[in-house]
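fyi for ur records
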Amino acid sequence: MKIIENGRVICGIIMPENPTPREKFAASELISYIEKISGAKLEITDRYENKIIIGEPDKNPYARALLAQEEFEALIPGPEGFMIYAKGNSLLLAGSSKNANEMERGTVYCVYAFLERFLGCSLSAFSKAGVEAGEYVPVQKTLEIADIRYVKACSDVSYRTAIVQYGAWAGNPNHELNIPFLDWLCKNRYNRILTWASIYEEYKKNGMLEAAIKRGLMFSVGHHEANKLFLPQEGNEYFPEKYYETHPEFFKLLSDGTRYFMKPGDFEGQFILCMRNRECIETFARNVITWLDQNPQVDIVTLWPNDGKGDACQCEECRQYTKTANYTYFVEEVSKIVSAKKPDVKMDLISYNDVILCESESIPSTVVVDGSTWHTEAGLRTVGKPDGSCLKDNVYEESLLSWKKAGAQVVYYDYFMGNYGALQRWMPMADEMQAMCKRLVEKEILGLGTQIDVFNVWNNIFNFYTYGRTAYDAELSLEDNLNEFCKIFGEAAPMLKEIIQMGESIIDGQVQIQDAGEHLIRNIDKEKVYSLYEEALKSAETKLARNNVRLMRMVFRYSDLEVTSEKLDVTVPHVITKAADETGELWYMNDNFGSYLTDKEGYGVAFGVQKLSDAVYEPDYWYDFE
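which gave:
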């Protein structure tokens, strides 16, 4: 079947009778990419004999002519499954849609899979607008496909989230790379964003929420700001009541007899409420329901405490129990009330710090537990074992499965970018993803979320890419992901594959996440890596490939300089480093290309450094972007 012939359109798109925002978006993406490939712009019309059909049979009569809805549903039960079916002069691109909060993501994924699998695109990266960097799109004037019957019945791991942290430490929710970041998440099979309440509220104002909805992304909202949102001490735009004045008994009783008041920037309070106060629980739950009525894109509310290890409430009832028991009780009770009105919405509890092992015998399935791979006694997990053993048969899995045994749905909270103490250094850990994703399926763990921000994608982009793709399709191998990802480097792909594999071989479970990037730099053959980058730049035949090589090399260069430079002040906050930077190269990278501290658009790469040197760096060809 021909779609484009010598730059001329000979095929039309047929939409469902009542297309949803996702189906409209899928069609618009197909039109956009076909035009990038061929220069020809498809139309939504039935006037051509050759037809691309969007949507499943019960939504589109042209799809029903190819197969019955019953056959489609048997093949594609979902969630997030899809079919690419080309026969004669028809091409069907359709995803499942019958599961709760599924939102036709399968149809969007179907279009992207068609572009990659059958038209040769690689949608694995993004960067600054106006610079040739990021994803690879081939150019050809004629597009013709053979008969196809490709089926992905459902996603293998159903919960694949980006934990968007940038409101906490750096950047802002109005970052210029926000929309490219959303695109990247969707293209690479992330299906939700978990973020702070204040960030989500800003998304509603700046267009991010609307953009996410049409891509099918769901939201988990609250984070460390849940109490501030739903029981505000001094009122907010949703709930003007000043609860600290009207109900001081809602807040935890301190040992001196006063009630706790959380001041701005105070993260030592940890659990700030009296978690056994029945009126507090019911008021909190009613407020959650009121807020959800206005925010239908949220299907998980994260009821997380602050960081730290503050004392629990000292009231007569609370002090009979542990902090973990009180926290679990509070989340369970809120969940019971909310689920009666919102059966598809879940409450999320985080297990970390000194709240680790489950102490409850029975937890409702409307509770999701985020098990952080950062525990008080064990610290952060080690990374990089290809057999997945950094996350199996250890304290992290034991903890998570203890909550699952009690009845909760469980997910991991992980750190594919490192934690902030890792300072955005390159930390290869993709080779463990295949085993890890299979383990999630085997143990019926709902999924995993990783900290990831609009400004640091390139720092550990292959980690992020590999998880999204492999969690969706656990049959993918590391080699599969490397081959697809490295298309963005053109003729330089073999050199980049070798560099990535070198890094993966160095990080092999020896150290914890916060130290992995430093361990890599101190143990990798840097001379060979730099030599491979030189060869890669010479081999790359397009601006796109050369610029992508430059970005990958810049991450390595930053990691090298940051680790090996003299540290001037070890007390600096953990999101930045005070390195000597004798030549000024570190700050040059940050000031001209970073998206992290400067609040500029940047290139989607982060450099956690401060300007401490007056040295003026004279850039070479590695910084000469085209």
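The chain has a mean pLDDT of 94. thats all i got for now
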